[in-house]
């Protein structure tokens, strides 16, 4: 129903009560534009925005959808959904986002930051292991063999960043 969502009731009431919580669902663009205007009136640390799914698995993320809210939200913006090293760098270099977050790639690549830093290939996760309630498929992917690399110094620095980002 327009103006409602499944979790929080009428949009106008939720805006007043919980300006930091909202999800896409069936909202109209006008609702979101209004929410952005309201967010700008609050001390929001950042906006984490999950865009539409890429048209195909591994496809290019929807930069335009992110850009719409870049124009409307005044604070730091983190873009999410389908980004990899190349598209993540591109959306930041374009000024469309300040940072990019990853979920799927982090599951299969516990050393994702190192792999990005070294330009290493990424492992692919197995969706059949998602949402099972078991640890398998979440905690058993190996780190890449950067210690054998000629770029060991770079790898150690990146690994230190991995460590600090997880603590
Ligand atoms: C296995 C799995 C579990 C997830 N669990 C959550 C969750 O608990 N809460 C949430 O807000 N998003 C969750 N997500 C969604 C991610 O945070 C992210 O928005 C989505 O996967 C798109 O980013 P990506 O393309 O980098 O994976 C999950 C995604 C995956 C793949």
According to DSSP, the number of beta strands is 5
Strand order of the largest sheet: 3-4-5
Bound molecules: flavin mononucleotide
Mind telling me the C-alpha Rg?
19 Å
Poorly predicted tracts of residues: 1-12
Shape: globular
Give the averaged pLDDT, no decimals.
Answer: 82
Order of helices and strands: EEHHEHEHEHHH
Distance between the termini: 42 Å
Percentage of residues in DSSP E strands: 5-15%
Percent of residues in helical segments?
25-40%
Summing up helix and strand content along with how strands pair, one would put the structural category as mainly alpha
- How many helices does DSSP assign? 7
Question: Main sheet, how many strands, which sense, barrel?
Answer: 3 strands, parallel
InterPro entries: Aldolase_TIM, Oye-like
Organism: Peterkaempfera bronchialis
GO molecular function: FMN binding; oxidoreductase activity
Protein name: NADH:flavin oxidoreductase/NADH oxidase N-terminal domain-containing protein
SSE order and pairing:
Layout: E1 4-5, E2 9-10, H1 11-17, H2 29-39, E3 47-50, H3 63-72, E4 77-80, H4 85-93, E5 99-101, H5 104-108, H6 112-118, H7 152-166
Parallel strand pairs: 3-4, 4-5
Antiparallel strand pairs: 1-2
Helix pairs in contact: 6-7
Bound molecules: flavin mononucleotide (FMN).
Residues 50, 80-82, 102-105, 107, 130 line the site of flavin mononucleotide.
